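Section handout 9: paired folding examples.
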Amino acid sequence: MKVEIFGSTDVGQVRDHNEDNFVLCKDLSNQDWTYKRDEQFDLGALGAVLFVADGMGGTNAGEVASEIAQESVAEEFKKVTALPGDDQAILSFVKKVVVKAHQNIVQRTHEDPTTAGMGTTAVVCWVVNEKAYVAWSGDSRMYLYREGSEFYPITDDHSIVWELVKNGQLTAEEARLHENSNIITQSLGDEARGPKPDAKMVSLQKGDRVLLCSDGLSGMVSDNMLGGILSARLSTAETCKELIQAANAAGGTDNITVLLLDVIEGKAGATVSSKPSTGIKTAASNGGSSPINTVASKEGPNKGLIIGVIVVLAIIAAVVFFVLKPGQGDVGQDSNDTLVNPIDTPALNNSVIETPASVIEPTQVNAPATNTTNSQTNNTAPITPTKPPVTGSNTNSVTNGGNEKPIDNTSPKTTAPKDTTKPSGINVNLPKDTANNNTPGGLTPRKSGPNLPKGGLNPDGGK
């Protein structure tokens, strides 16, 4: 399989420093942790690795947590000399990599009490044997773009609002704009309650684009717009630049990190079509089925119009038939119609995949505010879905003699609070991200929602 790979990170328009970190290994067999713009190469026997971490903690060293996670993931993959075994063994390995990063962060807080309270999200993807194995904790995401297929995240955020999406109480776009979208239910760094990362596998084919990002991108730019940018088929480097520019244009309220792997040559696969549905599309609700990108569909408007006319005529004919011949039953629609699923996404531990109900417009939603990032347990709290501005995540790219790689962030940094506002509508005591926040408890706020300033773009600036 021939691929092209690139990564970039940007501080955004509001933050004064970058708490995101990422790492790319284009050839694990030869331990090549560099990458070049517009370079296409054959994937080695041990594949490639992509990793994104979005640090939290503000003055409590969120960037330190994400850097430790980055270094830990690289260290674990450097030990790999052969594939662990079958799909389940590989999935188990990438989950253990995430847990190991958490343990290393906790160890640092023991050694340096000034970093107490720091944490990070994590999403790691191992691309090998024409498959992508992904594990994650928090709300950093992986997407799979496939032309002719609907576009939505493969991963399911560990957050309050995404639980509502999976339950059919919010749409993905409503969740993105929700005032409580900054509250995650799982991350790395909380000693009292460690992360329970999820993992999935998806098969890859020629033309696929694998995107990993922090919520500085996904929180600022809708999935529809992300799919549109990916459909333009620019190079990986130019696509990363366009994605970061879109997040900054939307406000850039958080750091932005984007990693992209393109499958240039690989096994061929048919596109997937589906009839329109009002249901929520998430990785959970589809059981890991192939994302279907409606933005870039090759079907064209004329064919869709003809099919639509045929369907309407068929419905009219059926209505007339049953009106003229009463007593033969009502015309019904099978609510279990689903999309064709060409992608295998086995979940570990026999987890149950739920199909959410149809989307409804809730007037008030009660969501369990389960805290896995702090030691307190919070009671169920009401959430009123509103649509305020949303914040993002973090990013920067580094160029060194044509090689692009992240810079070591081990030197001390002056950080700013990430979120000091208690989200409205939730009865929880949220920790303020200040220098005095050393006591775990409550849910983890990810970002604030100020009036968003505008600013310039620095997709390829060094960190």
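Moving on to protein 2 of 2.
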Amino acid sequence: MPRPTKRNRVTNKKEEPIFTLLNYKIMGSGAGLIFLGFAIMALERQIDGFLSLFISPILILSGFVLFGYGIMKKEETVAP
């Protein structure tokens, strides 16, 4: 009978979740900024308008950066 490998062993370890509540809040803020940027762009209905040309791209880009930061943020753990 083959010996069980580490992958086949059943452990009672409780796995930590990948994302914490802080990660979800940051990602939600980023998604909100992305939505707000596209909404402002759609509401202005002008191609050469100030909001659709300058403000909306800044909001959308910052939303994507914030969303990426929310994915990459790792919670600091303090050793007991």
